[in-house]
Amino acid sequence: MRIISGKYKGKKLKGFNIEGTRPTMDRVKESLFGMIQNYIPNSVVLDLFAGSGALGLEAVSNGAKRCFLIDNNIDAIRTIKENSQIFEEKLDIINTDYKKFLKTTEEKFDIIFLDPPYKENQMDKALRIIEERKLLNDRGIVVCEYEISNPQTNLKLIKEKSYGSKKIKIFEK
What we know:
Layout: H1 26-36, E1 44-47, H2 54-61, E2 66-71, H3 74-83, E3 90-95, H4 98-104, E4 109-114, H5 123-132, E5 136-146, E6 156-163, E7 166-172
Parallel strand pairs: 1-2, 1-4, 2-3, 4-5
Antiparallel strand pairs: 5-7, 6-7
Helix pairs in contact: 4-5
């Protein structure tokens, strides 16, 4: 696992073995970031089920100005802190439950990455809170990575792609 492009291209990332996580493969990440590259410069990013922090850190490497990396797993938080040591940009690394964060944050986001554990039905719950609390800036996007449950939202679907059993849908406000 590594940063695939941008300022920190080539930086190796730890965390492919964190219990309960499934890191996004480099080829999927490369394709995904090709689809959203125009949204990244100077954006505020939320990597909600951050795991190793790979998606949020990739966004920062490509020009995001600030990134919130949220996970309720303390091992994931330790890994994110280790992976982000060389980053100069503003990173908010927070160990908390996704619902608690979404219900209490006052921040608005340009990009939100949702890649929750597949066996738990957290995608739709997170999308519902994001919409109810209006956490997306105008033209903000939500990137959903999933296998089983097809995300349900009132946001506008702008792109979708399958990578074997993994699927990505990108919604815009």
